[in-house]
Design a protein that fits this description.
single chain; 398 residues; alpha+beta; Butyryl-Coa Dehydrogenase, subunit A, domain 1; Butyryl-CoA Dehydrogenase, subunit A, domain 2; Butyryl-CoA Dehydrogenase, subunit A, domain 3; 4-stranded mixed sheet; 4-stranded antiparallel sheet; 14% strand
Length: 398
């Protein structure tokens, strides 16, 4: 959009100067970025006022519109900057701003912005994923001998991203077993250092330590660490989707990944010519490009509706379906193009760019891991099967 061109140039200039080249190279090649590198980059964004620009000015934000945020995020992604914000800035921060008590806001929001607190999300359970309302982690209210009111929490959360780093977890727990499923859930803030909290790593087929299982055994949580009313946690949890609806299309991320595939097509040869000239590769690449531009145009249509004051309905669920599948197909083409070079597994290669090898692409070491990581994109945040069902019922009326 033309009105944001000045902002685009400003972001590009900032990233060119502020983003450390080794970190940029890691992101470009699809390698893992360490916690220290992520925090360092977030501190640079915070110093510029761009870590949480969509937060209210009262909480050190800039009251940016969704369109301004989209421009910032797109330029950061295309410049190979690490992901920022995530669970802390994009999820629990807005929840506390909207639903938190003054005491919760004053305690947590500054610590989120100064990166003192790293958060994780305690939603999914071994027997409650897409059907989250069936969660079984139990919280029973009790009074300590000193008169303090606490919840005693028992249960387990799974697929908890970066729980190995987290200081706090926002967690859905069942506080009423007699009420209807959605009506008996509360929203708690749990200190990960509390007695009874333990974290077990879940190493995926891609070799990355991204997910964890968190066990909660007689964990005491002060009642003042509950967000909203007791048994009202389901509505609070659903409101998170309002912050991410249009971002779930992953347009900028798809653009970056597709640019990587083009680079692979230019450097890898088959039958004596670059893959870009081979019919099978060119055909699949063009198909992906058309799908991406169609998705981008659809997102733009929704953004215009939003800016005009229109309400975004459940039809935005199709954006996640299309965007997550598109990423998978892009990564599949990358692996197909690189061939057997992607099969060798080297854990160290996930963290550092490989030494120059004339007979192997620089993208090869992380290609298979990246493809396996994206398999979860059609599961996390609501599986594709559930999304199809919601669209069928709520949009098509079937």
């Amino acid at each position: 959009m033309a009105e944001f061109e000045a902002l685009r140039h400003e972001v590009r200039a900032f990233v060119a100067e502020a983003l450390p080249p080794p970190v940029r190279e890691k992101v470009r090649l699809g390698l893992e970025v360490s916690k220290d590198e992520m925090i360092d980059w977030q501190r640079r964004l915070a110093a510029r006022g761009w870590l949480a620009p969509h937060w209210p000015q009262a909480w050190q934000g800039a009251d940016w519109s969704a369109a301004q945020r989209a421009v910032l995020q797109e330029e950061l992604v295309l410049a190979h900057a690490p992901e920022t914000g995530g669970i802390s800035i994009e999820m629990i921060g807005p929840i506390l701003i909207r639903y938190g008590t003054p005491a919760q806001q004053q305690h947590f929001l500054p610590r989120i912005l100064n990166l003192e607190h790293w958060w994780c999300q305690g939603y999914s359970e071994p027997n409650a994923g897409s059907d989250l309302a069936s969660l079984g982690t139990r919280a029973v209210r009790r009074t300590r001998p000193d008169g303090t009111e606490v919840y005693v929490v028992n249960g387990s959360k799974i697929w908890t991203s970066y729980a190995q780093y987290a200081d706090w977890m926002f967690c859905l727990v069942r506080t009423d077993t007699e009420a209807r499923a959605q009506q008996g859930i509360s929203f708690l803030l749990i200190d990960m250092r509390s007695p009874g909290v333990s974290v077990r790593p879940l190493i995926g087929i891609h070799g990355w330590h991204l997910f964890n299982q968190v066990f909660l055994d007689d964990v005491e949580v002060p009642v003042d660490m509950r967000v909203g009313e007791e048994n009202a946690g389901w509505s609070i949890a659903k409101s998170l989707l309002e912050h991410e609806r249009l971002n779930l299309a992953r347009v900028a991320e798809n653009r970056r990944r597709l640019a990587k595939v083009r680079a692979i097509g230019a450097e890898v040869e088959e039958a004596g010519e670059p893959l870009l000239r081979r019919p099978w590769f060119a055909r699949r690449l063009r198909e992906l490009e058309v799908r991406l531009e169609t998705l981008a145009a659809t997102v733009l249509r929704f953004r215009r509706l939003e800016r005009a004051g229109g309400a975004l309905g459940p039809e935005t669920g199709m954006l996640k379906l299309i965007g997550s599948r598109l990423i998978q197909d892009i990564e599949n083409l990358a692996v197909d193009a690189l061939g057997p070079d992607t099969l060798a597994y080297d854990r160290a290669a996930h963290f550092e760019p490989p030494a120059t090898q004339a007979d192997r692409s620089q993208y090869a070491p992380a290609a298979s891991a990246r493809r396996f990581v994206t398999r979860g994109y059609t599961i996390a945040g609501g599986s594709s099967e559930i999304q199809h069902e919601l669209l069928a019922k709520q949009v098509l009326g079937l």
